[in-house]
């Protein structure tokens, strides 16, 4: 699969917007683009006593669906695996209170971006 520079730049800008949006709502951003052999998590944050793993999806149009719709069951499983690896790396993880949020950024040409938070969007139930 080929990913163009515009896609990478749009994704990075979307992640920055998402981080700012979350911080304005009281989240503390702990890590951006956590990467391990299993994959990547866009943002790791703290919301009160909860550790939050955040998947950010940014799109310019809705032609392929809303951004959050790109967080497929396959992607959710991948994020869960990476989150487990992240938690294993923490000494104090123990029984960490965690959740998985999705931030959707829709930035149509010539308009302000629309940012939406979906709290507790998926996870092990």
Protein described:
- Strand 1 (28-36) and strand 2 (39-47) form a beta hairpin.
- The chain has a single domain, classed as Trna Endonuclease, Chain: A, domain 1, CATH 3.40.1350.10.
- It has 125 residues and is α+β, with helices and mostly antiparallel strands.
- A five-stranded mixed beta sheet has the order 1-2-3-4-5, sandwiched between helices.
- The protein is built from two helices and five strands; from the N terminus they run H-E-E-E-H-E-E.
- It has helices spanning 5-24, 73-88; strands at 28-36, 39-47, 50-59, 98-106, 114-122.
The oligomeric state is: single chain
* Rounded Rg: 14 Å
Question: What does the largest sheet look like?
Answer: 5 strands, mixed
Measure the end-to-end span: 32 Å
Summarize the structure.
The chain is an alpha+beta fold and 125 residues long. Helices cover 29% and strands 37% of the residues. It is globular.
Write the layout of secondary structure elements.
Blueprint: H1 5-24, E1 28-36, E2 39-47, E3 50-59, H2 73-88, E4 98-106, E5 114-122
Parallel strand pairs: 3-4
Antiparallel strand pairs: 1-2, 2-3, 4-5
